[in-house]
Amino acid sequence: MSISEYSFPTRILFGAGSRQRLGAIVKEQGFSRPLLVTDSGLAALPIPAEIAAILASEKAQTKVFSGIAGNPVESQVVQGVADYRAHEADCIVALGGGAPLDVAKAIAVLVNHPGGLFEYEDRADAKPIDAVLPVIFAIPTTAGTGSEVGRSAVISEDDTHIKRIVFSPRLMPRVVFADPELLLGLPPSMTAATGMDALTHLIESRLARGHQPLCDGIAMEGLRLAAGSLRLCYDFAKAGAGATPEHVSARGMMLNASMMGAVAFQKGLGVTHSLAHSLSTVLDLHHGLANAIMLPYAMRFNLETCARELGLMSQVLGLNGGNAKAFLAWLEDLRAAIEIPAGLKSYSINSQQLDRLVQFAFADGCHQLNPRPCTADDMRSLFEQALET
Ligand SMILES: [Zn+2]
Q1: Containing domain of residue 35, as a range?
Q2: Alpha carbon of 56 to ligand 1 centroid (Å)
Q3: What pLDDT is recorded for position 1?
Q4: In this structure, are 205 and 169 located in the same domain?
């Protein structure tokens, strides 16, 4: 596979082996002391050392910060800022899935902005993010959040696990190295959960209220790519397939689908994400897994408002019947094929937790652009349906 370069919405080097260009590009941009931000899981694998070696080949001295595990929290960001200062770093290389990418962005904010991270939360009375941020180079190792082409970071409070969003166009990484080889070892469960997050972004952004035809077009093509590759990636992951051309190609399709999802959801998301954010807050569920479980319930709820759009998706995927029902059936088949639970029954949630789930989901902003208005009672009913299965 050759390496393609495109600059939308930032500079992207896509293709097997594109990570090898990192050292030269970091040097060309005038940097020599990167802080490599990754998570503890990846730190145990050879990838961070390989990236540090690529940087060292161009005389850059890298410090690795890997104090990130699970859903990212503020204290991890604070630790990363301390490491950035101790290393006298001059740029950030973010390596991993959504968690390290988001923490890297939040570190970049706090390096040159005083005070606590959530003083810069995306809300009306927030302090502005108006100083120059350290340049971020992003290397995704999952195909899910698309955070590498996003302008926001989602970080939770340490104590409550409530998610806070920090947003600024300045958070956009300067160069993305989208290298499908880095995804070849992603385990089946992570392949499934992150891939379903990307799929949820594509579907929800297409259905979100608002007139954004550019996002709509990107969402539809992203959906086609994800539909053509997610199950393949899962099967390859399960079979432990190595670097075959088919495996690399499928991972590459999902990487693009994931970036397209993040570009498309500038338009907005929907109720699935509100339910998922709440499941992560209350039960610490993985974001992609939570979306994957709830997506079909949310889409059935949306059916009466969105039959035409869901039918269009069905046609884009060439499904038999080409209507909304065929699309919903396809979604449930896909979820089963990649071994995502069909409901929440196995989590044995008590009634007090259910109340909190509804409360947090309704307080979450994502559902405000859902095509069908969703009340707290509707959300309770969606959780209850999922709890029965
Ligand atoms: Zn998401």
Answers
A1: 4-182
A2: 34
A3: 56
A4: no
CA distance 178 to 170: 20
**Distance from the CA of 226 to the center of ligand 1, in angstroms?**
15
H or E segment to which residue 253 belongs: helix 245-264
Residues facing residue 12 across a β-bridge: 6, 176
197 and 218 in a single domain? The answer is yes
Measured in angstroms, how far is the CA atom of residue 280 from the centroid of ligand 1? 11
CB 32 within 8 A of CB 24: no
Q: Which residues contact 251 (CB under 8 A, 6 or more apart)?
A: 143, 180, 181, 183, 184, 229, 233, 236
Helices 213-239 and 188-207 pack at an angle, to 10 degrees, of 170
Could you read off the pLDDT of 145-161 as tens digits, one per residue?
999 999 999 999 999 98
**C-alpha 272, offset from chain centre:** 14
pLDDT digits (tens, 9 = 90+) for 78-87: 999 999 999 9
Cα(360) to centroid of ligand 1, in Å? 16
Element holding 148 (H helix, E strand): none
How far is it, in rounded angstroms, from Cα 278 to Cα 284? 9
Residue type, 179: D
